[in-house]
Amino acid sequence: MAQQTAGIHHITAFVRNAQETVDFYSGVLGLRLVKKTINFDAPEVYHLYFGDEAGSPGTIITFFPWAHSRKGQIGAGQVGTTTYAVPVGAFGFWQERLTKLQIPFTLTQRFSESYLEFVDPDGLQIEIVERGKGAPSTWSFGGVPAEKAIKGFGGAILYSGAPDKTARLLEQVMGLRKYGTEGPYARFIASGELGNIIDVNIAAMPMGHGGAGTVHHIAWRAADDADHLNWRNKVIETGFQPTPVIDRQYFNAIYFREAGGILFEIATDPPGFARDEDPDQLGEHLMLPSWLEEKRADIEANLPPIEVRVLEEDSK
């Protein structure tokens, strides 16, 4: 059987304000802050991870909040829109919630599905769709009960500078199945139940540039370390030049830039976020890799304080 990814492992984006990001992704969307750590390559900056109760692959959105980051431009070479899946029957709840919180949204249709489209405080494009597949959330926070909560990623819309080449990569290398085309998009489906539906622009579009309000990379799932090494070999055989395997504490990673300009990562499902924290306390403390622990005092002094808090509108 040909090697296939189950779908998205995580998506990582640039934002400006750490507390504003926590308030939006935990306060508004009801996701759990599952890890509070730092950018291992720039320890003066947080790396914040949000997801389901355990931070399961297929649910994880991560952020680098750079306070003085330039404003990015969404365009080709990026993930254009991040899609979240909610249970069937929860669409009306999310319409009411966004209205209550005065977050403008647009109702759209694509591939016979209805979407709520809106943006976060930095302009990242988000959409919510009802999907039957995927385990229901066991996490509730603020005004979002578990039975209405986001289950994880529905998928993503990729903005490619070379759509035909990106499509071939998704099918022939990553193992996704082409579902069809509609309007400006082609749809591809991975084998998993979350983070598995990927739409790609058919026509080329202007290139974007990185900065606050843009996605840095999209990561795909590898089942374990052995599968991960097989993925690296497969990527090399296909003509790309992936990085060596990099230890990211909670998963191992390789990176390569595909022909449409999008930075792809392949990340292992294990070991997960409970390797250095009790599952009941995920995200409550600043976690550092061992090689930076001796610099903890300096690192903490340079990071702005953040807290997960219930929105005022949900406290009334």
TrEMBL record:
SUPFAM superfamilies: Glyoxalase/Bleomycin resistance protein/Dihydroxybiphenyl dioxygenase. GO terms for molecular function: dioxygenase activity. Keywords: Dioxygenase, Oxidoreductase. Gene3D superfamilies: 2,3-Dihydroxybiphenyl 1,2-Dioxygenase, domain 1 (3.10.180.10). Pfam families: Glyoxalase (PF00903). Residues 7-131, 152-269 form the VOC domain. InterPro entries: Extradiol_RC_dioxygenase, Glyas_Bleomycin-R_OHBP_Dase, Glyas_Fos-R_dOase_dom, VOC_core. PANTHER family: RING-CLEAVING DIOXYGENASE MHQE-RELATED. This is Ring-cleaving dioxygenase.
